[in-house]
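Continuing the batch. This is chain 6 of the set; chains 1 through 5 are on the previous pages. Same settings as before, nothing changed between runs. Recording input and output for traceability.
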Amino acid sequence: MKSFIRALGNVFLTFLIMLLVVYGWAYIEMKILLKNQPELFGYAFYMQETDDMLPEFENNDVIIVKKDDEYKIGSIVLYFDGEDSKYKVHSIVAIDGDSVTTKCLPCTANNKPVSKDNIYGRAVGKVMVLGKIIRFFKQKAVLIGIAAIGFILLVISQILEFKKPKKKPIPIASDELSVRDDEQKNS
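Output for chain 6:
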């Protein structure tokens, strides 16, 4: 039982450290380095929060965006929409000099043109389930539950450690030590 609880504690601790590393990385990228999206090796990650890019991207998909300056009609890009003050992923339908016109895939009407400077990058892939996992762990109740489980595991491990019988050293007489030393010298 003790080894099971210790193994469970190790798994929980590993998971918690991984979670802290990811949150720490995102925090440093966005708050300290003042980046709009967390980046890793030139790729940014954006969580799609609407169904306006079906069937290409579904709600809660994490979209992998490569920073890129070369776009063509039909490219799916992440851009900052100044009217809504948020990032959006849409398909390019027209390029006119320094401005780009986009639209969501199921929409019939185009969006207002945006400057190429507002385009963050081009969508190159997606991670399907990651968005649902991120949304799950962003809930306050889940974070409180994780902290409570960690605290309970810590308390249980300390109780088991406290109840562990202490091993008493076996006293060895000095004449036994001299006999053992003689045996080691002879061999």
